[in-house]
Amino acid sequence: MPRSLLTLPLTLALAASAVGAQDVPAPAPQPQQPVPAGQQPGLAPANGQEGLVVDVEGGISAPMPIAIPAMPTSAVVQTAAGTTDVVGQQLSQIIANDLRNSGLFTPVPPAQLRTVSFPEVTAPAFDYWNGTGAQALVQGYVRANGDGTLTVGCYLYDVLARSELARQGFVVSPGDWRRAAHKCADSIYTKLTGEGPYFDSRITYVSETGPKGRRIKRLAIMDQDGANHRFLTNGQSIVLTPRFAPNQQSIVYMSYVDKRPAIYVYDIGSGRQRLVVQNAATTFAPRFSPDGRWILFSMAQAGNTDIYRVSAQGGTPQRLTNAPGIDTGGSYSPDGSKIVFESDRSGGQQIYVMNADGSNQQRISFGGGRYATPVWSPRGDLIAFTKLGGAFRIGIMSPSGGGEKLLTNSWQDEGPSWSPNGRVITFQRSTQGSSGKADVWMVDLTGVNERRIPTPLDGSDPAWGPLRP
User: Fold this and answer.
1) What is the pTM of this model?
2) Dihedral of CA 261/453/289/291: which sign?
């Protein structure tokens, strides 16, 4: 007879500051409620595999109902993050928001969420949750530890099958309690969709304020849901096109320090920045290679703009393109073997792909209009771009140029950047008119689930960072 999941230890997975993997005991397990006679687990397929799955291709057309009640606590304790009972309520709200924002889940309304006791976390009231229409149930708990940390447990259940699908636990410092919620949401999303996680990640962008022509532009960073917002620069110099390093410790961007556009690397921990290319020429559009060893960028010299790469530590740049016109917007494939970029060498902006050493340059876009800001998906299967033709729209195509599909339909959407799992794209949306402004938006691959990310001021040039460890 297979061992009951309820007797297995809870395994920690969050590697944050002062956090390490270890086993944590779950709440005291309670007897499973028997399945009523004649009731079959309708979500379990005949082949014996887990049947509770989400159709990621259907997107918002059929979101899964999911119940996420407030997480109880073993004892109400005052912590640096607040009392544990309030933290438990906030954790469930963040998990619900993450899953709702994916467009794949519909959380059960608060009025239908019953109070869950601490021992009940491992013995759900399946009959009640079945009556709410929920197909999946997320229960968890929060507990204050003697060393000041918090333990957050996260359990996923199949309501109709009355079975546990997954469990994870996280020990976090009080300042990282939101990350435990994102990690819990990631584990649920991954279990039910089969896709990679992306909720515990950050976005860097350019925060803007002031009238057009005199905009103050500051480098900023935030969680993917807009929380934990922080300005990194003071706005004394204009900044553009920030991009995370793969190790998330630094950001490469273009800045007008000393009124000369050049590429800098900002160290997030120290707040220091350094010039990458010691050159009087204009350098812009930087991006790290997947292994973090190189920085790809464009440099304008003698009326021509080409793509170069330079060691992330600086040094002599290596020229990769040498065609008349403007070659820019380089982005590596996830394995680092190829580069996609835009070029007007054919008379208008189009997308090209070349080997990482600059050889074998081939045009891949041939539709009507122009194409700009291409960026390779972290899964390697798609390239996102800005389509220019009357309006600016976000689109995707295969690396060979096939299967072109436009995802947005607004006046000016541009500058796509992929989520860590390659399922969602963040971009900049601008409004028309002299008082028009830019905001940070997201859209998934279905092109249906669009939403704006809240920022304190206007926002442009968003770039998604990797999943946090």
Assistant:
1) 0.88
2) positive
